[in-house]
Amino acid sequence: MSTIQRICIFLSLFLATPPPFLATADGGRTTPLTAYDILQSYDFPVGILPEGVTHYEINGATGKFSAYFDGSCSFSLEGSYQLKYKSKISGYISKDKLTKLSGVSVKVLFLWLNIDEVKRNGDKLDFSVGILSAEFGINNFYESPRCGCGFNCKSISENRQRGGIRSNPFVSSI
User: Fold this and answer.
1) What is the topology classification, in CATH, of domain 18-161?
2) How far does the signal peptide extend, from start to end residue (predicted)?
3) What is the rounded CA–CA span in Å between residue 135 and residue 126?
4) How far are the Cα atoms of 54, 67, 93, 151 from residue 74, in angstroms, in the given order?
5) In this structure, what DSSP letter does residue 57 have?
6) How do residues 111-129 score in pLDDT, each as one tens digit?
């Protein structure tokens, strides 16, 4: 089978599966769901995913997903945690649980550790890195952080306007 034939078969299979859509009250379709909409449909807040997802894939039967960014993304939270998202993150999603995650890491002391699981337990999110875990209130994740500045983008912008910060120390090209 030639490469062209393989590509045609792949495209026909891919195009035969329509993307998830938001439904209207009369049963019609409107805009496609975003990766953030999908997170919410599994009972997760949008803020566990930074702004800037360019596209995503999800298998509704298995829960396997991938989300893509234009490049890697890193930022600091509360001055004590540094997070890094690769240009592709993937794993499995089910109600209140993300498992077998890849592409997301957190800096603990001097080590970068992969976040491999996130569970929601009521109004708390539990992030696991192997045998270690940390729990945070869900209210910390109601909005998505921005690459480079996390949730402190407004204060960084205000400092720049006052002449205090001239560059963004958190931007990464990793």
Assistant:
1) at5g01610, DUF538 DOMAIN (2.30.240)
2) 1-23
3) 4
4) 16, 15, 22, 12
5) E
6) 899 999 999 999 999 999 9
Burial readout 69-93 (b: 16 or more C-beta within 10 A, e: otherwise): beeebbbbeeeeebbbbbeebbbbb
The domain ranges of the chain are 18-161
Q: pLDDT band at residue 30, thresholds of 50, 70 and 90?
A: low
Residues 96-111 have a mean pLDDT of 93
- The whole-model pTM stands at 0.71
- Tell me the pLDDT of the chain averaged across its residues: 77
pLDDT band at 8 (very low <50, low <70, confident <90, very high): very low
Say whether 145 sits in a helix, a strand or coil: coil
CA-wise closest residue to 21 among 9, 5, 38, 8: 38
Q: What backbone phi and psi angles, to 5 degrees, belong to 158?
A: -65, -40
